[in-house]
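#lab-general

N.A. 3:47 PM
ok so I finally got the sequence cleaned up, no stray characters, all 406 residues accounted for. can someone with queue access submit it? mine expired

B.Y. 3:52 PM
send it over

N.A. 3:53 PM
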Amino acid sequence: MKATLHNKNILLGVCGGIAAYKSAELVRRLQDAGADVRVVMTSGATEFITPLTFQALSGNPVHTDLLDTQAEAAMGHIELARWADLILIAPATANTISRLASGRADDLLSAVCLASHSKIAIAPAMNHVMWSSSVTQQNINLLQQRKAVILGPASGMQACGEKGEGRLLEADELVAACSQLFKQGLLQGVSVMITAGPTHEPIDPVRFIGNRSSGRMGFAIAEAAVEQGAIVTLVAGPVQLTPPLHVTQINVETALQMQQAVMKHIAEQDIFIATAAVADYRPLDAQTQKIKKTGADLTLSLTPNPDILSEVAALDNPPFTLGFAAETQHVKDYALQKLKQKNIHMIAANQVAHEDQQDTGFNSEYNALQIFWQGNGQGGEQTLERCRKTELARQLLTLLAKQYYA
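B.Y. 4:20 PM
back already:
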């Protein structure tokens, strides 16, 4: 499931803007996702980047002219229109957007779009004033009414030296958005809440009690849930990770803040996945000023933090619950005990590695899991072998979906 555009034919339309150079990387990213890519360039695009570049990257001839005698002998624009599963125009200039909205067919790209029943996705890239123009916005609205999908634009510094909305989305963002146009995932339309990362419990304004969780597993699960069509809410502790696309992220620091965020939104959720490494205890009296070093022993009084997973599972109408257990020993025994005590549906357990052990668990891109579940009077278990957390998350959600619908 790594390649989400497997066996998909993507016709990439490249228009004449400075962002055309980004389309070269986009070809590669689409191919990495499994797509077969062909490229159509407007005459303006060839002034910014050569057709030879796209031919070398895609492995296919690049099409530039509507009146190409050799191609049109076989009705080339019609053949391209029928071949494509998706026509992605990136970058799409204001001129091309106007052509498409007007229904013109006087260059190859507009003719292919007019002759096609395929999905059309448009990724605008232009000066921010051009983008905000009422004419451009009218054209965009008209194209959306015709079921075209508008991807972006992003906001930021532009080639003209000004800042605003009109930047082309990055290649990875475009690939992710295109993959969503085809998927009817295992969790399509299902609301999923995920907690991720550590919590930091303040001792004073500069010190805290925390743990080694990086949040990578939770973020990977959030991304995998989006791939499966879920509506994802991610409650994240203090981590240094880029938020996944199409995820509602709520940032918290402490266990109490995480509890409040979860309970505020839990009634809307169908599935709750608790990957966060919530601190078991917090200082009873966090100091408002920095504690000065005196050389004497310092005693901290700790009080238990709320058990968020147990609280969710104890609701009158709880969501499907999946918990995590990071253990240093007796992994299966402790996981089964936690599964029963907390009365949750599933639990994913892993051995937390020591420094001299295999690179898995906290602060690693890799992990391995033992999954246990309850249901229909008898439980089950399955081992997910060590692999990257992104792939492991996909395997875990496939297994979860089977139990959720059972």
